[in-house]
Design goal:
Layout (H helix, E strand, L loop, with lengths): L4 E4 L2 E4 L7 H9 L11 H9 L2 E7 L15 E9 L4 E9 L8 H14 L6 E4 L6 H6 L28
Parallel strand pairs: 5-6
Antiparallel strand pairs: 1-2, 2-3, 3-4, 4-5
Length: 168
């Protein structure tokens, strides 16, 4: 599968695994802004990232002098898709760091994710969990809607694991 890259103003979104910065992802997970996850040991974080389709959001420098001492632009956002890349996708860990919010980057990120999904001819379902107050309207832009429990005899089942930061 070809890796996607999108540009807008001084930002880039890329699915290139080489650009993902595990330390930046872990720092976000450890922040108060990311309420659903916790930081983890590097070996587990790297395994999680390697087994997912990841979209990194990067702030590009306005000049080459801003890259002094860096080989990659800073990662300021992220989205992770757990998937077989054919029929099913579970979207999780979507964020843009607070200092970069209010610029439409989160909406652009989900547009890029949705563009990737649109290229999968056999995609059956995309799922995610979201805060109903903010998340439902935000993800409606992707065509996401609530799965009505019990309709047509289907229900979403889940089990919370030890690594969850969500209250029971």
């Amino acid at each position: 599968m070809a890796k996607g890259t999108w540009y807008r103003e001084n930002y880039m979104i890329s699915t290139s695994p080489e650009l993902i910065q595990p330390e930046a992802v872990n720092a976000a997970f450890e922040s108060d802004a990311i309420y659903w996850a916790r930081g983890m040991e590097p070996e587990y974080l790297k395994k999680m990232l390697s087994k997912s389709l990841c979209f990194g959001v990067y702030a590009l420098p306005e000049s080459s002098s801003e890259l002094a001492g860096r080989s990659d632009p800073p990662q300021i956002g992220f989205a992770r898709v757990i998937t077989d890349e054919v029929t099913f996708a579970y979207l999780t860990d979507v964020y843009v760091l607070e200092e970069h919010q209010g610029k439409g980057l989160g909406s652009w990120l989900v547009e890029c994710v949705n563009e990737e999904f649109a290229s999968w001819p056999h995609l059956r379902r995309v799922m995610l969990m979201a805060n109903l107050k903010e998340g439902e309207a935000f993800y409606a832009k992707m065509g996401m809607s609530q799965f009505k429990q019990g309709e047509n005899g289907f229900a979403i089942l889940n089990k919370q694991g030890r690594g969850s930061a969500m209250p029971v």
